[in-house]
Amino acid sequence: MAVEIAVAGGTTATGPLTPSIPLARTDWLDYAKGMGILLVVYGHLLSSNFNARVPVPGQFFALSDSIVYSFHIPLFFFLAGLVVAGSYRKRGANAFMKDKLAHLARPYLIWCGLQVLVELLFSRHVNRPVTWLDLAEIPILPHEQFWFLYALFWAYLCYALCRFLSLPLVIFAVAAVVLFSFPIHTEYGALDKFSIEIPFFVLGTLVAQPLMELVRRRVPTLAILIPVSVFFAGCEYAEFAGITSAQRLELDYGTHGLAFLALALLGTMTVIGWAAYLADRRSWSWLATLGRYSLPIYVTHMLLGVPVRMALLQVLHTQNWLLHIVAGMLVALVAPVLLFKLVEHTRLRFVF
Length: 352
What we know:
Layout: H1 27-51, H2 58-69, H3 72-91, H4 93-121, H5 132-136, H6 147-164, H7 169-181, H8 191-216, H9 222-241, H10 258-281, H11 285-292, H12 294-314, H13 321-343
Helix pairs in contact: 1-2, 1-3, 1-10, 1-11, 1-12, 1-13, 3-4, 3-6, 3-8, 3-10, 4-6, 4-12, 6-8, 7-8, 9-10, 12-13
């Protein structure tokens, strides 16, 4: 694919996320990333508030949390797969991997380390206590949400090896199916998560051209999107009703099967369909803005969103869960953009 865009997790086909640098963009992908990062922030802050005993209604939390976690990460891996071919063609194997090391490893180490340090400093107020060992293990054991950057790097590495060795992508696809069926059971290097998410990355590489053509022809219409969305919602509720409310509909090794794989794909396609529809009409352009700043939002949203809960609880003494979620999301979505703008033209821009 010749078009270069900002891809999932905040990296781009040309380098780190730098909105000030003109890029040839496919707007619907920015919309899709914007929807995805919105779900990421919502899911993480919802869980954080619930675990901190903010009175989020239990049934609402269980269903809402399950819907978000059933497909929001597969969505990002799929989007990354859509654009990886263009990045590799432009650079070649060596430059491609150097780019991914710089633009995934650097923000990973900086922001993962900073989050652990902050959690150590405010250890009495965090949901899961951390130790200095957590800080020391960051290079090999991702902390909290930062596993995504680690797992995405492995996906890029596997793709580069496949292309460098001139192997057909079908081999990559078979390997992904094997990993999903017999995943690696270790959190070190985020290999467990990589095993579960790699099929979506591979699928993105395989369907990139036909999917782009469908969107170019403006196939997504309300006549298609509304029934698909209703069907997806029905499948979500049916699956949720079939398990205990304490579980979430998240792809995981050993517990979830092909039904959850299908659910994740259906959710991914639903988001992409709506993204293409909205982009074609230039509606809700703020979603595209969120997509363009997805990396700053991703690496800082917990650092900026969780203090909102602490302030509401300890300063304003309010436990209104809706206020907690809305205020936390506003800060976690807007503040990272402002932070990026603040450092964009300084020597500190390397942190993103």
